[in-house]
Amino acid sequence: SAYEHNPRTVTNIKYQEIKDSIRVRGLDQPPQVTRRPGEKKFIIRNGGNTRLSILRELYKETGDERFYRISVLFRPWDGERGEIIALTGHLAENDLRGNLMFIERAVGIENARAIYEQETGEPISQRELAKRLKADGYPVSQSHISRMQETIRCLLPV
């Protein structure tokens, strides 16, 4: 299944290019999947929702099994840190593969803040947020976080 907290909310600008490549070459890189404790379905662990959507579309169009049965890399759920690992993984992967829009990154980072605050049980500063994101593999400067929070405050209703 697709990761339900994927920061990408609009279609990847490279969607057709990726689809054309997968149609011709197949899937070059198997997606990583994981499974939350107690869940039956596997989910995409860090990036790959676009490829999953394309595979479903290509299978529907062609009926070709190579778009239905794919190899994946299983990664165990990361204990109590699973949600933040999945979210930061999706942020990083989406930035690398298809340029997230600024507002998508901002909302994703705000979601990460909420997860970190849930972990600690208290509010965290922008500096602490930047430190934690970097430690989890998604470095963002404190000044950039400040601009993102201001954007959310101005553009998105509470």
TrEMBL record:
<protein>
    <submittedName>
        <fullName>Uncharacterized protein</fullName>
    </submittedName>
</protein>
<dbReference type="InterPro" id="IPR022304">
    <property type="entry name" value="ICE_PFGI_1_ParB"/>
</dbReference>
<dbReference type="InterPro" id="IPR036388">
    <property type="entry name" value="WH-like_DNA-bd_sf"/>
</dbReference>
<dbReference type="InterPro" id="IPR036086">
    <property type="entry name" value="ParB/Sulfiredoxin_sf"/>
</dbReference>
